[in-house]
Fold:
Amino acid sequence: MIDTTQNNRNQETKEPIKNEKSFHEEYQDFLCYKENQILKKKQGVKTTIAVFIVFLLIASFISGMVVESRYGFTGRLLEPPVSPAVTEESSFALEQEESVIPTGNSISVSPAILIAEEALPSIVAIQSIGEYTDDFGSLQQAQGTGSGIIISSDGYIITNNHVVAGADSLTVVLQDQTEWPASIIGADELSDLAVIKIEKTNLAAATFGDSSTLQVGELVVALGSPVGVSFAGSVTSGIISGLNREIYVGDKTMILIQTDAAINPGNSGGALVNSQAQVIGINVLKFADQEVEGMSFSIPINEAKPIIEELINTGKVTRPHLGIWGRDILAEEVESYDVPEGVLIEQVQPESGAAAAGITRGDIITHFENTRVTSMSYLIELIQTKDVGASVNLTLVRNGQEVSVEAVLGER
Structure:
């Protein structure tokens, strides 16, 4: 038999196992372990995010430096501009620049405002009163309005001849709305210019510009009194649309400036000024037609100045005059009727140099003093180079035959 007593004794005397934990304790240890693991993971994620953010900041900074070095605007977008240091040598120049740099809303100010402020004091409205006999033989009174330009501080004013023609009395209305009676110093129908005067001093005289330097597209401003005194001091702006426009007005040809600045009835005699507020033209007419818009015309001031001076000095303009009315021969007429280019005589003034030389209706002038003539405007230009009383040689074509005549230029 197996003796179990010793074994039992050994079992009874066996030492219990030390540090043995209960299930509850082991479970608590397990939970602490899990919590520690989760905490370590969270800390690892935070560390990773922090490192990533630092990396992005460094990358953004480097990119910003590259963009700034290339385009130079990052710093100006993020920070207010910093003025550079001003040396003693540059401080005066900087002060000058700052004094002329426009600020606030002045950048958007129309240039026409400054032009009008400077030019308007020399612009006047003109009222005319005249008498005429109607179709029934009754005497009627006619009133008209126009514009004018003060050209001297002692009261000389220029306007159009058609503004003052036939007037029995004239009244000038200044910009301050005061009214002054005016007298006609001289008038010239051919140029449609006139000079009138009021007895007042210390007036604002206009400044003349140079119409020979005008360019198509240049800014201009028209000043005057359209449609009566109620609209005195009106300002319209536009550009130079054309130069040296040959316009037929009645029985005469005028070489005019074309503009799209509005010129209406009553604007006649007013000023067309440039960007320096200098008078470069005297408003005279516009094309009035339903199919036409923005075609107005002014007399170039360079052409007007000698006429104005003569009107002031003598009261009239003395011009050589042949005594004909004519027109250009058209190209199709040259081909169809086998006639030369030249000026076709449509009418001869009685007791003129042309009538005395035997020139008749239907003659074609082809030469003036051996100079080829192809247009009426050029013939007038050649005549104006001569003096009143000068004898000139003309070559005509009459009934297919060439004829030479001598004509004495009269006074127009």
Observations:
- Residues 23-71 form the longest helix (49 residues).
- The chain has ten helices and 20 strands.
